[in-house]
Write a structure and sequence with these properties.
By secondary structure, this protein is an alpha+beta fold. It has nine helices and 26 strands. The mean pLDDT is 97.
């Protein structure tokens, strides 16, 4: 089926600011509440939020097989379950409707009034009901840095790391959309020099620069997903800040890995950018020759995506400080490999499941994806523009992550995921 929505020459009759992440070639999917308190599924062009529920009621999706209430729900799960053919038909239709040459909706003021909203007049929600969440550990640079800090620098990677996409199962209950603040967690830590743990607020709260991908219903229990079919089951991608409490993590992670240090909060960007929209930005990932993955993980072609990523830290009342510039293409294990390995044992994957990439770190210090690496465990504090220093994240700091792809023809972006760290929660 042709992918007409990606036509780089297409212009919209809606105004799109220069360097917007959301030209007509993007057409991401999200969920928002209108100023009339209506929850709807929508898309975005420029700074306009488009009510797909209203479009469906007005019969603009005629000819596409959709349930009557497909876009009048509070999550995208059912739409995602319909599969790639439906996703592509809907994106193509939206691109056609908002094309500068199409006057069908453009010249119908009554319809435009109920379909198009200013972005400032809607409240973005978590776009999917996340049943299960898995976080991977797939950046070779990040895993090497952590290994150097906490283990033998000469053997930074554990023996299994180059053979399997390492991951763990996290909690979906504390994943929140951009703009929702998070609280500093309490937990057990073992301060340097102590022989017994203490309880209290984490002193080493960190961000993790990640991306996540959202799956459709992929398999039945017992069935694995072949590597060459994996991308058919990936709806799209989001920016993802997987908050981490490093001192809690250091005490708890042996023998079973992350627990309270990770499940207190994760922040996610509200617009899901489809793999179809990212198609022009495929690129080669890192070589996997020494060792070569086992046969079920071997893949050919371009399975990485050239997504430029940025992290900024903004102190309370202060200005933004860009502290990292990285790229998703640095990830050693691809999304296809992650999903295939996840199901090779027969694990079932459902519509709306979220898979985190793991911290994305590049090869240079300015491309590291966590404060743990940027400050090298606190040994090299960074100085912000207001003169204050940071080893980790302070209460009142806001962490802002942005991401976009760009070539000579088009820019496709994710907007941002922004979240403020508050002091520990106190029940009123």
């Amino acid at each position: 089926m042709p992918l007409t929505a990606n036509d780089p020459t297409r212009k919209s009759w809606l105004e799109v600011p220069e360097n917007s992440d959301f030209p007509i070639q993007n057409i991401p999917f999200g969920v928002f509440i209108t100023k009339d308190d209506v929850v709807t599924i929508g898309t975005r062009i420029g700074n306009h939020a488009i009510d797909l529920g209203a479009l469906q009621q007005l019969n603009y999706f005629e000819g596409i097989e959709l349930t009557d209430d497909m876009f009048m729900q509070d999550t995208l799960n059912d739409f995602i379950s319909d599969g790639k053919k439906t996703w592509r038909l809907v994106r193509n239709r939206i691109a056609e409707l908002f094309d500068a040459k199409n006057d069908k909706l453009r010249d119908n003021a009554k319809h435009r009034e109920v379909v198009i909203f200013d972005l400032a007049d809607v409240e973005m929600q978590l776009p999917v009901l996340i049943g299960d969440y898995t976080d991977f550990y797939s950046s070779r640079e990040h895993a090497t840095n952590v290994g150097k800090m906490f283990r033998d620098p000469e053997n930074a990677l554990l023996p299994n790391w180059l053979h399997i996409p390492v991951g763990y199962h996290g909690r979906s209950s504390t994943i929140v959309p951009s703009g929702i603040p998070v609280h500093r967690p309490n937990g057990q830590t073992l301060p340097p020099g102590n022989t017994a743990p203490v309880f209290g607020p984490s002193k080493l709260v960190d961000f993790e620069l990640e991306m996540g991908f959202i799956t459709t219903d992929s398999n039945i229990m017992g069935e694995s997903i072949p590597i060459d079919e994996a991308e058919q089951h990936i709806f799209g991608m989001v920016l993802f800040n997987d908050w981490s409490a490093r001192d809690i993590q250091k005490w708890e992670y042996v023998p079973l890995g992350p627990f309270l240090a990770k499940n207190f909060a994760s922040s996610m960007s509200p617009w899901i950018v489809t793999l179809d929209a990212l198609e022009p930005f495929r690129t080669d990932g890192p070589a996997q020759e020494d060792p070569k993955p086992l046969e079920y993980l071997q893949q050919e072609g371009k399975h990485a995506f050239d997504i430029k990523l940025q992290v900024a830290l903004q102190p309370e009342g202060g200005e933004e400080n860009v502290i990292s510039n990285s790229n998703f293409k640095y990830m050693y294990w691809s999304m296809s490999q992650q999903l295939t390995h996840h199901t090779v044992n027969g694990c079932r994957v459902n519509s709306g499941d979220l898979m985190g990439s793991g911290t994305i770190s590049g090869p240079t210090p300015d491309s590291f994806g966590s404060m743990l690496e940027l400050s090298w465990g606190g040994k090299n504090p960074m100085t912000l523009s207001d003169g204050t220093e940071r080893k980790f994240i302070n209460d009142g700091d806001t962490v802002i992550m942005r991401g976009h792809c760009q070539n000579d023809e088009v820019r496709i972006g994710f907007g941002e995921v922004s979240s403020k760290l508050l002091p520990p929660f106190i029940k009123k």
